[in-house]
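Deliverable D4.2, example record:
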Amino acid sequence: MKNMNLTPQATHHIIQELTHTTTQATSDEWKATGLKVRPDTWKRAKRYAADHEMKLQNLVDEAFRYYLNQTN
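Output generated by the structure prediction step:
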């Protein structure tokens, strides 16, 4: 059985360093979701996106892609 421990692991990377490891979507389609996120995590993500002049949805998408690429 696959280990389903989804505890986040600390890394020392920033999203810009990881963009070369992710594939860009071939279309502009997005899936609307209703995710629940801890308030402090959401605040940090919003601040990071604003500081790096990127959309929050792109930050979340890149973070998901990076995490999934590392675990598979």
